[in-house]
Amino acid sequence: MNADTKTNLLGLTTQQMETFFDSIGEKRFRTAQVMKWIHHYGVDNFDDMTNLSKPLRAKLKEIAEVRGPEIVYQDFSDDGTRKWVLKVDGGSCIETVLIPMDEKRRTLCVSSQVGCSLDCSFCSTGKQGFQRNLTAAEIIGQVWVAQRSFGPRTDTAKRPVTNVVMMGMGEPLMNFEPVMASMRLMLDDMGYGLSKRRVTLSTSGVVPQIEKMIGQIDVALAISLHAPNDELRSELVPINQKYPIQQLLDVCQRYLDTLGDNRSITIEYTLIAGVNDQPQHAAQLAKVLRQLDCKINLIPFNPFPNSDYQRPSRNAIMRFQSAMVDAGYLVTVRSTRGDDIDAACGQLVGQVMDRTRRSAKYIDAVQIDAGSDVG
Ligand code: SAH
Ligand code: SF4
User: Fold this and answer.
1) Is residue 122 part of a domain?
2) Could you identify the atom of ligand 1 that is nearest to the CA of residue 122?
3) Last residue within a domain, chosen from 65, 86, 115
4) Whose CA is nearest to atom 9 of ligand 1?
5) Is 345 a residue of the active site?
6) Which pLDDT does position 153 carry in this prediction?
7) Domain check: are 189 and 267 in the same one?
8) Tell me, what's the pLDDT at 179?
9) Is the CB of 135 under 6 A from ligand 2?
10) Which domain holds residue 23?
11) Per the domain annotation, does 371 fall within a domain?
12) 95 belongs to the catalytic site
C-alpha cells in the first residue's frame, strides 16, 4: 500500500476512528489510545505508540499514517506569536498564526480552503480565486502543528492553543463536512478539548449551511456582515445576492435559540473609508441588528496591493464605534497590536508569496470576547 491509499488518522473524529478500528477487526478502546498519541502527544510514528502491541503497530504502518501538513517556514517571535507556512498536498501553501492574547489565552487562526470562491470585494483571498478545499486532516493539522510546537502535552489542563478561530483563508461553510469534523476534534477531549465558546466559525453568510449546523455542532458563530443594507452588502459580499441580510439574521437567531442561555453572535464589520463607515451606516446598522443577540467587532480595512479601498481615519473608526455603543451594543475594535502582527506577517508573506496574512488581524477583537466568556 502506498501513501495515497493509506488512511490518514489525523483527520478522523472519534466516531470515524472507531469505525476504522472496527473495519480492521480491532477493539474500540484503541481509538482513545491512538487519538491521545496523535492529538495530545503530537506523535506521528506508530512505533512511538508504546501501549499498542507490536503486531498492531506493524499493521497500522501498513494501512494507515498520521500525516500533518509539511512545515515550509516557521517563525516564533519574542512576543509569543508563532507563525507557520504549511504546504498541503498539491503544493499550495496556507498560513497559520498563533497569537498570545494574554497570559492565559493563545488563539490560533485556521484556514479552511486554499483561496475562496466568494470574491468579497475587500478580501485578498477572494481576489486569488478558489483553488481547493482543505481536508479534515489539513484543517486539524494546523492545530496539531501549533500544539506540537510546544512539545507533548503532559498536563491536559495546560493547553498551548486555547482558542481557535476559523478566520484564515477560505469560507468554512463552503467546505462543510471537513470543517465540522475538524471542529469536532477541537472540542473533543480526545482531541484538543477546547470549550465550545473558544472555537469560532466565521462565515460570510452561507444561509443553508448555517441552517445545517443547527443541532449538529455547538460553536461560536461570527458573521461577516460589513454593511447595514442589501444594496451595499451585495456589492461588498456578493453571496448576499443569494442570501440577503434578513435571511441571514433569521438563521443566526435560529442557531442561537438552540444553544441555550447567554450566547450571542459576533457581527464582524470591516470599516472601509467612505464606503460603509459613515454615520448613516452606523444608524442603519444599529437598527437592523436590534433583532439579534449580538456583539460587534469593527475591523479597520487592511489594504493590500491593487485594492481600491482605504482604511478609515482613527476618528472615523471611533465615531462609528461610539455611535454603536450609544445605541447599546457591545463593540470592540481590533487592537493596534494586530498591526505589529501584520507587519511581522507581511515579511513572512513576502518570503513565501503567500497571501493569507490578513487572517491574523481579525482575531483580536473576536477573541477578546470569546475569552471573556466562561468556557
Ligand atoms: N470566509 C470567512 C472567514 C475568513 S475571512 C468570512 O468571510 O467570514 C475573516 C474576516 O476577515 C471576515 O470578516 C472578512 O470579511 C474579513 N476580511 C477579509 N479581508 C479583509 C481586509 N482586507 N480587511 C479587513 N477585513 C477583511
Ligand atoms: Fe472568502 Fe471570507 Fe474573503 Fe469573502 S471575506 S472572499 S468569504 S475568505
Assistant:
1) yes
2) 22
3) 65
4) 167
5) yes
6) 74
7) yes
8) 98
9) no
10) 3-65
11) no
12) yes
Nearest CA to ligand 1 atom 24: 301
Ligand nearest to the CA of 363: 1
Q: Closest ligand to 127 CA? A: 2
**Could you report the per-residue pLDDT of 312-348, keeping only the tens digit for each?**
999 999 999 999 999 999 999 976 444 444 433 322 3
Q: Are 94 and 353 in contact (CB under 8 A)?
A: no
Ligand 1 nearest atom to the CA of residue 268, by list position: 13
What residues in the chain have per-residue pLDDT under 50? 336-375
Provide the grid cell at 166.
476559523
Q: Is 183 in a helix, a strand, or coil?
A: helix
Whether residue 168 sits in one domain with residue 46:
no
> Residue 257 Cα, ligand 2 centroid: separation in angstroms?
26
The predicted pLDDT at position 348 comes to 31
Q: Which residues line ligand 1 (CB under 6 A)?
A: 120, 122-124, 167, 171, 202-204, 224, 268, 270, 299, 301-302, 304, 358, 362
pTM above 0.70, yes or no: yes
Catalytic residue among 95, 138, 171, 268: 95
201 and 236 in one domain?
yes
Going by CA atoms, what residue is nearest to atom 17 of ligand 1? 123
CB 22 within 8 A of CB 79: no
Contact (Cβ atoms closer than 8 angstroms) between residue 310 and residue 272 = yes
User: Residue 274 half-sphere exposure, CB side, CA atoms within 13 Å?
Assistant: 3
In short, whether 356's Cβ falls inside 6 Å of ligand 2 is: no
Do residues 145 and 30 share a domain? no
Question: Active-site residue among 120, 252, 294, 345?
Answer: 345
Q: Which residue has the cell 511581522?
A: 344
- Distance (Å) from CA 256 to ligand 2 centroid: 23
The DSSP element (H or E) to which 95 belongs, if any, is strand 93-100
- Counting the structural domains of the chain, the total is 2
Residue 249 maps to a domain: yes
In a domain, 263, yes or no: yes
- In this structure, the answer to whether residues 309 and 270 fall within a common structural domain is yes
- Please report, for the domain that includes residue 201, its CATH number: 3.20.20.70
- Residue burial 68-77, b: 16+ Cβ < 10 Å; e: rest: bbeeeeeeee
Cβ of 142 less than 6 Å from ligand 2 = no
Residue whose C-alpha cell is 509569543:
80
Q: Are residues 226 and 138 in the same domain?
A: yes
Per-residue pLDDT, 355 = 34
Contact 297, 267 (CB under 8 A): yes
